[in-house]
């Protein structure tokens, strides 16, 4: 069994409540779930949110979308992931995050196939980014997730779930799922108000006539309207993880 786990919460620092912002007539998170459910190689999808009252709306949205939810720690996301998966004991877990509402189910399916067929402990399109920021997907064995859950101790590893695994190539078999064309310069994630504006406009342009729009459709739109790219140009990729790692280093050396 292959289990998708979507992590989402309302307490985003840079853009609070972003997952509930409206996109094409529904909360952004609802549109995100809609896209993820198109993936054919995921047998199930669970939304993992926090046990805090402000995330009641996130859990309620999961019910409305027809998927299960698990509620756990705000900061120990690794624990939240493991306990959400433990009920199902899948062969593999697919990690996706709530700030990627343009997630591409075809990319997800291809990354799952790449990881399973290659017999990797961890496969993703994040190790050497060649896809737009916002199409991130990580596929890991439940066994590897269990190892990380039992052994990881640093705040960065507990918050970001997979660094404990992907920093140990001598222990875990890692696979980098890469695109034929380098599209890593595109930013389709939502961390800042400018990101949200871009995603909202993409949905407004494509969703009404084609709810199942693809990465190719987005690229075609951006080619026709290149001014859209300027909304969030220059924002750093994976800034949150970098700052967390720097803070941990400063703490150790302080």
Q: What labels describe this entry?
A:
10 helices; Spore Coat Polysaccharide Biosynthesis Protein SpsA, Chain A; alpha/beta
Question: What CATH architecture label applies?
Answer: Alpha-Beta Complex
CATH superfamily, by name, is Spore Coat Polysaccharide Biosynthesis Protein SpsA, Chain A
At the first level of CATH, the class is Alpha Beta
Span of the ends, CA to CA: 45 Å
Helix-strand topology string: EEEHEHEHEHEEHHHEHHH
Please give the radius of gyration in angstroms: 17 Å
Q: Structural class, judged by helices and strands?
A: alpha/beta
Instruction: Tally the structural domains.
Output: 1
- Total helical segments: 10
Give, in spatial order, the strands making up the sheet with the most strands: 5-4-1-6-8-7-9
> Which range best describes the helical content: under 10%, 10-25%, 25-40%, 40-55%, 55-70% or over 70%?
25-40%
Mean pLDDT: 91
Briefly note the CATH topology name.
Answer: Spore Coat Polysaccharide Biosynthesis Protein SpsA, Chain A
Major sheet description: 7 strands, mixed
């Amino acid at each position: 069994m292959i289990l998708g786990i979507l992590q989402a919460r309302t307490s985003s620092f840079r853009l609070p409540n972003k997952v509930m912002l409206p996109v094409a007539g529904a909360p952004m998170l609802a549109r995100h779930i809609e896209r993820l459910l198109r993936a054919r190689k995921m047998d199930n999808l669970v939304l993992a949110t926090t046990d805090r009252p402000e995330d009641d709306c996130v859990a309620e949205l999961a019910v409305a979308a027809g998927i299960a939810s698990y509620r756990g720690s705000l900061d120990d996301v690794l624990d939240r992931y493991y306990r959400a998966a433990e009920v199902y004991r899948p062969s593999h877990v697919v990690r996706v995050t709530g700030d990627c509402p343009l997630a591409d189910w075809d990319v997800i399916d291809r990354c799952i196939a790449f990881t399973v067929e290659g017999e990797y402990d961890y496969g993703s399109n994040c190790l050497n980014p060649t896809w737009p920021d916002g199409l991130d997907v990580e596929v890991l064995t439940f066994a590897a997730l269990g190892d990380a859950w039992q052994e990881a101790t640093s705040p960065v590893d507990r918050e970001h779930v997979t660094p404990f695994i992907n920093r140990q190539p001598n222990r875990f078999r890692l696979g980098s799922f890469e695109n034929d064309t380098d599209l890593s310069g595109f930013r389709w994630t939502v961390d800042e108000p400018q990101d949200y504006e871009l995603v909202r406009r993409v949905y407004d342009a494509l969703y009404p006539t084609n709810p199942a729009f693809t990465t190719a459709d987005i690229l075609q739109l951006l080619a026709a309207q290149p001014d859209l790219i300027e909304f969030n140009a220059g924002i750093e990729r994976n800034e949150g993880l970098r700052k967390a790692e720097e803070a941990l280093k400063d703490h150790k050396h302080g």
